[in-house]
Amino acid sequence: xxxxxxxxxxxxxxxxxxxxxxxxxxxxxxxxxxxxxxxxxxxxxxxxxxxxxxxxxxxxxxxxxxxxxxxxxxxxxxxxxxxxxxxxxxxxxxxxxxxxxxxxxxxxxxxxxxxxxxxxxxxxxxxxxxxxxxxxxxxxxxxxxxxxxxxxxxxxxxxxxxxxxxxxxxxxxxxxxxxxxxxxxxxxxxxxxxxxxxxxxxxxxxxxxxxxxxxxxxxxxxxxxxxxxxxxxxxxxxxxxxxxxxxxxxxxxxxxxxxxxxxxxxxxxxxxxxxxxxxxxxxxxxxxxxxxxxxxxxxxxxxxxxxxxxxxxxxxxxxxxxxxxxxxxxxxxxxxxxxxxxxxxxxxxxxxxxxxxxxxxxxxxxxxxxxxxxxxxxxxxxxxxxxxxxxxxxxxxxxxxxxxxxxxxxxxxxxxxxxxxxxxxxxxxxxxxxxxxxxxxxxxxxxxxxxxxxxxxxxxxxxxxxxxxxxxxxxxxxxxxxxxxxxxxxxxxxxxxxxxxxxxxxxxxxxxxxxxxxxxxxxxxxxxxxxxxxxxxxxxxxxxxxxxxxxxxxxxxxxxxxxxxxxxxxxxxxxxxxxxxxxxxxxxxxxxxxxxxxxxxxxxxxxxxxxxxxxxxxxxxxxxxxxxxxxxxxxxxxxxxxxxxxxxxxx
Length: 651
Hints:
Rossmann fold, GMP Synthetase, Chain A, domain 3
């Protein structure tokens, strides 16, 4: 491999290329005490070199795993690069995971060195030391709160950098030699799946697989060095990692790291990203915030908002269908832009967004059309941890709410006879770490990756996903039952944050629903409805009526097609607690762990299917912030929903 190829096919090579070609270009920005601090590509390379030397001085060698635990921080990204320069393998973990969740991945990867952000993460690892005999060093970025913490394994990253400078002084030419030894087919990172059905699996990716998909996506959307990206999602999620790490190094654009999760909305507005990525839950939260604000507005402004959004959606729907919008709509659109749509994008911090993607799970069509209607180029993509994200993408002139786009460049796609999506690409995982059985289940002898998703290819080549294949089933009457279809329609409403639908093998569908506490709280306050907390608010008859109205609208929508009319919700319950990752009900990426939820709430589900029961006393175990467990109990009202006659017959 020559020097030019090496510079394009490994992450250390890409870093050196950016530092050589754009030394004064801004690699990272980080907000600290309200002020944005900038790090150039030249400074980034120096930083990475010092950190690599410090890791080498601690005994880190080729093939070692280094855990990264924290929010998006430039220095933590620099540590990942430093590890890769030595041939070591960074393994980012979810920073909001409780201590017990960290034991399995740390033991599996035989981690000797962990690099963490702050005191919170240090405390977790110190509590686990008895279970992690191989863990020798805990390196921390932020020293606040750690001055009086004494442990032989603790070391400030400032000390690591100083040791690294001394190490390279003693080993002249060592850094260049180490980087030259890194190859495209070396393991670049270990990512852990969300673990919806058990222990998370370690997904092994090479420099080649990650860079191939990052470059493919960048070329597809014509990304360049002048893009601005806000890195605010967990770095352990491969979606965030691809956008703020792999594509960052491929394209040379600027990654901006917020001061904290609490400042993300402000930072989004200040930075004005041009390239934006978020899972559906983020767009759901943004829409809920918009609706809450409009509820506070005067009636004329609410009517103007509704009219402008409806106009924008009509125009965009026509354009997406390659049709000419109505003349009156085209004439009125500039006025709607000036009065409402442009100010709304500015409030959301999306005035400069050129390309926005959503992925991670299916997005509700109503939610998708809202954001496209207000002038944001929101598109869907399809991928997973195992495929390095970019499997299907939507071109700007081929965006549809019911598909996830065309196969990305370099992807070969087909649908098995039983409806499962299969694919081949250069971006596939090498395998699951220390799990050849699981690897054999998803990678067959011909190199096809079995996604576990059910769907089909449309005549125009676009892919439609129904749901996870294991979650797609049928009602007792034979109607196809895909719970995500129903749940996404429910979550479009600002009052509903989460929903879980049940119906496999049953006569009809029932649902458990979480209210959106801020949105419903604001709604209750405007009506003078007092409440003491989430459980109290969720049990109010007026709130259950509000949710019932949302369910009724979903049923009416399902009834418009004979294929979905049998999926109408017959009964529902509003839960007295939010589904929570700490209670194992959701993954760290906020996906419902269906099997676990079905078992935990089995008594409630049985009650929903018993028409004789109008109330159900539910007691469930919860985990508190300090790790203790307890139980919460409530008498839930089981409410019947209104059903609608099918309006359109099946073809």
